[in-house]
Every structure is written in structure tokens, then in C-alpha cells.
Amino acid sequence: MIEEGNTSIIAHMLCLIAVMLYPMLHVLFASFSKASLLMAHTGLLFRPVGFSMAAYQAVIENPMIPSGYLNTLVVVIVGTAINIIMSSCGAYYLSRRDQAAGKLVSLFIIFTMFFSGGMIPSYLNVDSLGLTDSLFALIIPGAINTFYLLILRTSFMSLPESLEESAKLDGAGHFTILFRIYLPLSKAVLAVLVLYYGVDHWNAWFNAMLYIRDRDLYPLQLILREILIANDMSQMLNVSADVEQISETVKHAVIIAW
Q: In the CATH hierarchy, which fold is given to the domain comprising 64-159+189-216?
């Protein structure tokens, strides 16, 4: 028999589930609704208001969506690979106990966590390197995240020093120690960093707005921003309904498709 205390806990948790689940269901139902009926609807939405696939058809026929997905995948895959390689090399150096300048370099790196050059110097730096209007503008400037670097450095420093000493006795160099000992023993941390870096690249849109003018290079997030925030429906093809009306259902369809 369920105790009274457990009953209240279960009821509380069910309420929390309903509160968190309904916004997602609202977006799903709205994406399948007819635009005119959805605009006229008031109150809570518990089912599609007049079933329609016009919003999803508009999203599929948008030529920017496939190219945006491709650009985003390139940035996520290439960017995450560069992030892991650069962070691993940097963390290995900072974890070295025989490097007298290691602590000083760590202080300079930590300094960048609290102070930066700002947006305008960053743009001038990227522009002077010729990276504007290139996907590398979304990858190279953020090749290393300071916080993630320190996490990996801490993981390397926690490994027994005897492993490195044994490897040196067998003639192993720094790259062998890093790629054959340190990285295999830090798979859990590397998996977390891959997830963090990947999510950062997937959600990033501000740098693309600053550095990219060629619409063919827009990542998916910048295209979604135009649709969701700027309400730019100019790239939607074969939209039969009124643009202002169907834009509401398209916004919900884009969120589901994303």
C-alpha cells in the first residue's frame, strides 16, 4: 500500500512531468495545425487545430535548410576533431611536472577565462587572417576552450607518474606517451569533451552572424534564427497560405525538425 508521503511525491512528480511535457506537445500540435485556425485559436492546445502538413512542406522546400545542415555538420565534425587534438596537446604540456614554465603558462591561460579582447578586436583578428566568409572562421578562433582544457589537464595530472617513467624506459617519446597512454586512459573525459565541444558548435550562431556574409555558408542555426526571430520567410517556396499566418506554423515545424 502506498504511503501518504509517497503519494504526494508521486503527484508532485507527475505535475512536474506535465509542466515540462506540455510545451513540447504544444509545439508539435501547432506544427501540424492549419495556419488560419491556429492564429484564431486561444487557450491551451491539446491537439492539432485542423490537420495540415503545409508547414513541413515549406520547411522541406526551403533550399537553405539542406545546405545549413551540411555546413553545420562540417563545423561540428571538423571543429570537434580540431578541438580535441589541440586541447589534448595543450593539456599534455600543462600537465608536465618537469616544465618550470607550466604554472606560469597556466596562469596566462586562466587569465583569458576572465578577460577577452572584445568583439571588435576579435573580428579584426579573424578578418586579418582571411577567415571571413569561411567555415574556418567558426572553427579556428575557438580551437581551444580554456575551461575544457583545464578539465583535461586535471585528468592527465591524476594519472600515475610511474606510467610515464616506464614508457620512457622503453624509449617512448612525448607523442607516444600522449596517444598511447594518456588519451586511452582518459576516454571518459574525452567523451565528455567531445559532447561539450560538439554541442557548442551545434548551437553556435553568433560567430556565423559576424563572420559570414555568403548565404551558402550559413549554418543551420543562423537560418533558424532568421525564421524564428527575424521572421524571414523569403526563402520559403510554394507557400500557398498567407505568409504571416503560415510563418507561425513554420516556426513550430522548424523547431520539431531541428
A: MetI-like fold (1.10.3720)
